[in-house]
Write a structure and sequence with these properties.
MetI-like fold; transmembrane helix; dipeptide transmembrane transporter activity; about 325 residues; mainly alpha; cell membrane; BPD_transp_1_N; MetI-like
């Protein structure tokens, strides 16, 4: 177990270094002036040079990268060009909101996807299987932003049951897990859960169908074991794969929710990325991508460890 953990950590180091290079270079080669959002239209060249020096944009790219990476490893992601506030504070606030949304969406997707997948796999080649497969394909194929706008029209505009946008009231006590705040999460969380539902359902269905065709299931039935006990054996063998997919979906939703968070004005990393891109805020854009990549790599490491712990076959290999 210790050797596996060390091996995974060693693999994560070059991955993060590669991510750092990519996210740094992508924003550098993007067109536009990163200082346009903080300079007045009639700004002098002297002011521009002063700002270039203040943000380190006047240095060669290799030196900029080394300085940025060194600061990032120490938790310093620089200052936002647009707001003048520390990037790490803005990113961590957005990560907190996105993590709440991603966790709720993943739980919804895991429950619905596992239900559809187990039922479809257990009754494979039946009408239930075909219906679950259609729903899975719909979940994977439907555009997020279109579904989000449709839900806003139905539940917010037509019936006025749920708020359309925002992240809840933020007062002295901050964000809490109560109805006053949760009602803002339901529409974006359900919108985000559709794709994980389809992915998990298809994965679990394939896994269950494969397990049911194995010899040990035939042997259990030959010994007269009832279907409920057999079902428990199927769940035990399919759970590691389902949990691995669920864990990866959290990372995907953290970084892939830019359109949904924009539609619902949810103050998460997707909204922050959208703002950074349109304002050409390079420090904020780099910091957000870096933190999301770090989160995804650490989450992937955690999923590997949990899967190894839950599945003895992986541990033996």
């Amino acid at each position: 177990m210790i050797n596996t953990l060390l091996y995974r950590i060693l693999l994560a180091v070059p991955t993060m270094l590669g991510v750092a290079v990519i996210c740094f270079m992508l924003v550098q080669i993007a067109p536009g002036d990163p200082l346009v959002s903080v300079m007045p239209p009639d700004a002098s060249e002297a002011l521009r040079q002063t700002l270039m020096q203040a943000y380190g944009f006047d240095k060669p790219l290799p030196l900029q990268f080394v300085h940025w990476l060194w600061r990032a490893l120490h938790g310093d992601l620089g200052m936002s060009v647009a707001t003048g506030r520390p990037v790490i504070g803005e990113v961590m606030t957005a990560v907190t909101y996105s993590l709440r949304l991603a966790l709720l969406a993943t739980v919804i997707g895991f429950v619905l996807g596992s239900l559809f997948g187990f039922v479809a796999g257990y009754f494979r080649n039946s009408i239930i299987d075909r219906l679950a497969s259609v729903l899975s394909v719909f979940g994977v194929s439907v555009p997020h932003y279109w579904l989000g706008m449709l839900l806003v029209i139905v539940f917010s505009v037509k019936f006025a049951l749920l708020p359309a946008t925002g992240g809840g009231q933020i007062g002295e006590v901050g964000w809490q897990w109560d109805w006053e705040h949760l009602q803002f999460m339901l529409l974006p969380a359900f919108t985000l859960s559709v794709i994980p539902t389809g992915i998990i359902a298809r994965t679990v269905r394939s896994q269950v169908a494969d397990i049911l065709s194995q010899e040990f299931i035939v042997g259990l039935r030959a010994r007269g074991l009832n279907e409920s006990r057999i079902f428990l054996h199927v769940v035990k063998n399919a759970a590691p794969t389902a949990l691995a997919v669920m864990g990866l979906q959290v990372g995907y939703l953290m970084g892939g929710s830019i359109l949904v968070e924009t539609v619902f004005s949810w103050p998460g990393t997707g909204m922050l990325l959208n703002t950074a891109i349109f304002q050409r805020d390079l420090p904020l854009l780099q910091g957000t991508i870096w933190v999301l990549a770090l989160f995804f790599v650490l989450l992937n490491l955690l999923v590997d460890i949990l899967q190894t712990t839950l599945d003895p076959r992986i541990k033996r290999s």
